[in-house]
């Protein structure tokens, strides 16, 4: 990430200087903070409510019930997380929410699962296999009903906004499987059976 | 189904509160305990997000993506429509920018044309990898993001090829 960040900032600065546009740098900085406040605010709203409600769900045994229903795929995806680990419930709810198309609500639960897996991994600097799997599951955005893109197509006056559903689900499914496969292959060749 | 989707959230919360009622849980204390963690998490995340937003903003300002996509479009002629390259390059980097490009494609070519359909599948079936890696690792303070980024970006690459192939096979 450090290299990517450096090259972005470097390229940006270089182009500002070449195009003699140096005066936009301060407005860009101000805009960055404004945008980050907006993004963080949305994320915070989701985190406050979902981490709050999920704590109740956890105590009520609802997460355990969800975990039980999803135990087979969870075992396969996150082999080193034991079912007794509280991360299991948050992994299960993250996956469920993503599948339901509630991506915004899924993020806080994924973060919580990440935190619990990190602690389980001995707060190691190196992310574990399960942590990588959780990330690729969230970047490949598999959903049973792609809400946002259909809303976008509707707004653009598509004659058939939902025409892409099957294609989107199929693509997401293939990408998800490939990404999980990448994690399995990568961790096998770099970290043994960790 | 879209209308039904709106009911999912209240139904889930209803289910949670109903169970808490039956089990006579100290629901408000639990809620506050969980919600407090959000503040802690955010205090770690904010600056990391700011750093990412700033660098992406600089890069977008440099219009490097349009120059790059013109170059790549010349090489990959025929396989992938040239209009899609800005979207392909931006998708893993910036959610807002790729959304804007998709809207632009809809406006210029229409959402039901070949290009519009392909753009829909790309936009709908992938996500902003840089942002997700930043948030998921930033929240717990992991600095080593090499593995996650390379796997995530490789998956995006496969995802885009799949999206184009699936769209071609599906719609034409």
Describe this structure in words.
The model of chain A has no long low-confidence stretch (mean pLDDT 89). Chain A is mainly alpha-helical. Chain A has nine helices and no strands. With 172 residues, chain B is mainly alpha-helical. Chain B has one domain (41-171). Chain B has helices at 2-5, 8-22, 27-61, 64-75, 85-90, 95-109, 114-125, 129-138, 146-171. In chain B, helix 3 packs across helix 8 (129-138). Chain B is globular. Chain A: Keywords: Membrane, Transmembrane, Transmembrane helix.
Count of DSSP H/I helices of chain A: 9
Round the Cα radius of gyration of chain B to an integer and report it: 21 Å
What is the tally of beta strands of chain A?
0
Which structural class is indicated by helix and strand composition of chain A? mainly alpha
Question: How much beta of chain B, percentage-wise?
Answer: under 5%
Descriptors for this entry?
heterodimer, A: 194 residues, mainly alpha, globular, B: 172 residues, 78% helix
What's a concise summary of this model?
The complex is a heterodimer of chains A (194) and B (172). With 194 residues, chain A is mostly helical. Chain A has helices spanning 2-18, 25-59, 62-69, 71-77, 87-99, 103-120, 129-139, 147-155, 165-191.
């Amino acid at each position: 990430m450090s290299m990517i960040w450096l090259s972005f900032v470097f390229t940006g600065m270089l182009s500002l200087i070449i195009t003699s546009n140096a005066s936009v740098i301060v407005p860009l900085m101000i805009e960055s903070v404004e945008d980050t406040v907006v993004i963080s605010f949305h994320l915070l709203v989701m985190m406050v409510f979902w981490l709050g409600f999920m704590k109740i769900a956890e105590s009520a045994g609802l997460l355990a019930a969800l975990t039980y229903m999803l135990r087979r795929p969870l075992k396969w995806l996150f082999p080193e997380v034991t079912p007794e680990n509280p991360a299991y419930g948050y992994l299960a709810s993250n996956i469920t929410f993503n599948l339901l198309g509630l991506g915004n609500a899924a993020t806080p639960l994924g973060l919580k699962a990440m935190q619990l897996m990190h602690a389980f991994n001995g707060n190691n600097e190196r992310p574990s296999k399960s942590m990588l799997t959780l990330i690729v599951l969230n970047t490949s955005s598999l959903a049973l009903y792609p809400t946002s893109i259909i809303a976008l197509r509707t707004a653009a006056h598509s004659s058939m906004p939902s025409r892409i559903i099957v294609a989107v689900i199929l693509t997401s499914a293939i990408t998800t499987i490939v990404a999980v496969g990448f994690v399995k292959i990568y961790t096998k060749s770099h970290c043994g059976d960790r | 189904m879209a209308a039904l989707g709106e009911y999912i959230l209240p139904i889930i919360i209803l289910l949670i509160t109903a169970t808490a009622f039956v089990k006579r849980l100290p629901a408000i204390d639990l809620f506050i305990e969980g919600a407090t963690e959000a503040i802690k998490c955010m205090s770690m995340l904010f600056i990391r997000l700011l750093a990412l937003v700033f660098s992406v903003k600089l890069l977008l300002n440099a219009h490097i993506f349009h120059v790059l996509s013109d170059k790549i479009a010349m090489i990959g002629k025929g396989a992938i429509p040239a209009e899609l390259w800005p979207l392909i390059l931006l998708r893993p980097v910036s959610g807002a920018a790729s959304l804007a490009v998709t809207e632009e494609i809809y406006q210029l070519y229409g959402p039901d044309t070949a290009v519009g359909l392909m753009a829909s599948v790309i936009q709908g079936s992938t996500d902003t990898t840089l942002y997700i890696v930043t948030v998921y690792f930033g929240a717990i303070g992991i600095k080593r993001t090499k593995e996650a980024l390379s796997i995530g970006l490789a998956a995006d690459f496969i995802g885009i090829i799949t999206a184009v192939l699936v769209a071609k096979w599906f719609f034409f």
